[in-house]
Structures are given as structure tokens and as C-alpha cells.
Fold this protein.
Amino acid sequence: MYSYAWYTQIDDVVEREVCVCGRKAVDGSAILTMESAGWYVRFDNLLIRLGDQRPDLQKGDMVKISIQKVNA
């Protein structure tokens, strides 16, 4: 079985939001209801969702990313 690993630096840790509802106000402006879509960590051109709680990671931290096939 093979495994792959990369050591890289975190470019950003961000909470993403999605619009779950929108309506037009009397004056014509948009009223949007936003909700969290979770916390994400970005490495160069890779964005990975880490869950609903803010991870204990910061921009500039060095991390190891690994991938290994498992038999379910």
C-alpha cells in the first residue's frame, strides 16, 4: 500500500459563508441571509474544508498533508 505526503505552509484559514435566503426590500435593495459553510484551510491552489469549528491553525503554519488508500 502506498501513501503520499507533502509538507507545505498554510496560506490562509477562512470561514466561508453561503447565502441561504434572499429578498428585495421596499427600496429595491437586496436583503441576504448568510450562514457559515464551515472553516477552510488554503494551500496555494488547494482549499480543504476542516469542519464547523475554527481549527487551531494559523496562516504561515507548516503542516503535513498525507493521503493513503484504505480498504473499507
In short: The first strand starts at residue 3 and ends at 9. The chain has a mean pLDDT of 94. DSSP finds no helices and five strands in the chain. Residues 5 and 66 are 4 Å apart (CA to CA).
